[in-house]
Specification:
This protein is of the alpha/beta class and 310 residues long. The protein folds into two domains: 176 residues, NAD(P)-binding Rossmann-like Domain (Rossmann fold), CATH 3.40.50; 126 residues, N-(1-d-carboxylethyl)-l-norvaline Dehydrogenase, domain 2. The protein contains twelve helices and ten strands. A five-stranded parallel beta sheet has the order 5-2-1-6-7. α6 runs antiparallel to α8, α6 packs across α9 and α6 packs parallel to α10. The longest helix is centred in the middle third of the chain and has 22 residues. The relative contact order is 0.12.
């Protein structure tokens, strides 16, 4: 397949590198020193699933140079999705489809609003990875998985084709769920809880899941997200919260969420598309979300300061 990776940090860099290693035609959309290093020395991935180094990769900061591709994987931060949608338009041909891999539950809606419903699938991924240095991705936890599908849950040849591409890659498990909305919200459960508790405490998950007080907060965050999902007719399994808690309990003790790392670094974060989204969507559905509201309010002053120019 001919693919473009929009956003080549921990998520995009890892999955794109695995696809390129498997022989697919992959172009990374990147910028700055990361792009410069990839052009000079390729892309290195240090991974618990096996290291790899691609000495030469296709990389650019100009999507118009790429032309139409078969598929675009969107791996930018959630708050960058609308901008990314505008940027990738030159890569959208009649049959091109786009798969969001963001942490929230609204990326597909944003992409469809910009690019048209026919071009957008929904998707998610699981991986603990980050850009360790320009041209270098570090994968430190979670056996990487990617899930995607048509937004109406019909089976399609294009989704099957992308799954076949991932099936050829090592270090990735790909799946087309029976219900993509259930899959997206199931992932949102644990990542939003992990992001929220980590951001307000500045502590790794091994600490917050062990302390009775913060573990209770995690459970309350999960319960609120579940209530919002059910109010929006998402058919989560009865044990969705327990599954999310089991996933959290299985993470390496030192694990932190990307939102937490951004907040601790004083950078713009995914606050509005994670805990903020729970509050907003809960309000729309008349569902109370007091713990998420507290987290959102507590972090909002820093988030606004991080978004000030200069």
């Amino acid at each position: 397949m001919r693919l473009a990776i929009m956003g080549s940090g921990g998520v995009g860099g890892y999955f794109g590198a695995r696809l390129a290693e498997a022989g697919h035609d992959v172009t990374f959309i990147a910028r700055g020193e990361h792009l410069a290093q990839m052009r000079r020395h390729g892309l290195k991935v240090s991974s618990i699933e096996g290291d790899l180094h691609l000495p030469e990769v296709k990389a650019t900061d100009e999507p118009a140079e790429v032309g139409a591709v078969d598929a675009v994987l969107v791996a930018v931060k959630s708050w960058q999705v609308a901008e990314a949608a505008r940027a990738i338009r030159p890569m959208i041909g009649p049959d091109t489809f786009v798969v969001p891999l963001e942490n929230g539950v609204e990326a597909a809606d944003i992409l469809a609003g910009q690019l048209g419903q026919a071009h957008v699938l929904d998707g998610l991924c699981g991986i603990l990875a980050w850009r360790e240095a320009p041209g270098h991705i570090r994968h430190a936890g979670v056996s990487p998985f990617i899930r995607f599908g048509e937004r109406d849950n019909r089976r399609s040849k294009r989704a099957e084709r992308l799954k076949a591409a991932f099936d050829q890659a090592r270090g990735v498990t790909a799946e087309i769920p029976d219900d993509i909305q259930v899959a997206v919200w199931s992932k949102f459960l644990f990542i939003c809880a992990m992001s929220g508790i980590g951001s307000v405490t500045r502590a790794p998950i091994g600490v917050t899941r062990s302390l009775p007080e913060t573990r209770a907060m995690i459970e309350q965050i999960l319960a609120e997200i579940e209530a919002v999902a059910r109010a929006r007719s998402v058919a989560l399994p009865a044990d969705a919260v327990k599954r999310a808690m089991r996933f959290i309990d299985a993470l390496p003790e030192a694990s932190t969420a990307s939102m937490q790392r951004d907040i601790m670094a004083g950078l713009p974060s995914e606050l509005e598309s994670q805990n903020g989204a729970v509050v907003r969507l809960g309000r729309e559905a008349a569902v109370a979300t007091p713990v998420n509201a507290m987290i959102h309010a507590a972090l909002l002053p820093q988030e606004q300061a991080a978004r000030q120019p200069g």
